[in-house]
Amino acid sequence: xxxxxxTWKALEAKGIMGINRRNADYVLKYNKRHLYxxxxxxxITKERALAAGINVPEMYGIISTEKEIDKLSEIIxxxxxxxxxxxxxxxxxxxxxxxxxxxxxxxxxxxxxxTHEEIEHQISSILTGLxxxxxxxxxxxxxxxxxxxxxxxxxxxxxxxxxxxxxxMGYPVMAMLRLPTRQSNGKANLHQxxxxxxxxxxxxxxLRGTWLNxxxxxxxxxxxxxxxxxxxxxxxxxxxxxGCYELCGLGYIGVDMVLDIEKGPLILELNARPGLNIQIANxxxxxxxxxxxxxxxAELAKSGVQESAEERVRFSQxxxxxxxxxxx
Length: 328
What we know:
This protein is an alpha+beta fold. It has helices at 2-13, 19-30, 36-40, 42-51, 72-76, 116-127, 234-248, 278-282, 287-302, 309-320, and strands spanning 59-63, 82-86, 96-102, 105-108, 113-114, 140-143, 162-168, 171-179, 195-199, 206-211, 214-216, 252-260, 264-271.
């Protein structure tokens, strides 16, 4: 027991944030409960983003009741690829990604052939709340399927890699790239076996990765190095993430984004309780960075200054950019 306390004190000294500190000092302090629906419901997030002129995957349609399932063919139209997801889902559960049509059927991103009736059954399960937070009735969202930028082809297995940036009061504090693996079934979810790779905030250069809580340098499926990769349009991602503070009003969020081959950076969703594995991926704690942002905001408040999203990005890049060679 004493050894555990000693270990935790050593981690705290390094600025590693635990779940209790995250909840008490950041989630509860900066995230007002009445604003949670904006981020917990992907449809509301998307509608707010569209109204603010922020890029998101195009929404093809919404199904809210069993009767509306009859509209599925009309919503899909002649499209050969699309995504169906629960509006209030978490952890990637319940998401169905259709990559192509196969005669009268559909082919999922993993190559499985499914029928129209099976898709309807999946939507019905979504509506019952099978995948929603708290098991409440839900809505199904049918949207554009993101085609990842070719830069990820050598370091990702199927699926769509995404980028998460933790944002405190509009200031990006830490970032990671999440890469699907065979074990995660092509999903960019760390709990299901995806890889988390730290990203230098200043440059968008990837650092070392973490897989199942072990540090790694190579993707287990492609065997290519995950570190030292330059992410395109990095400043675009940083500005998108910083601007989400104004979008939702929540002070402590995880912003999940993707890089589409045609449409560039897109926001997928926002998270009011972002996980803490990002610290392992960056080999760095969140606490010291969060304190630095809070001290900066307190200093600005004395003179009544409020920084723009671009200024907030610049501050974070100057203070938190730890430009490393991948040979370090």
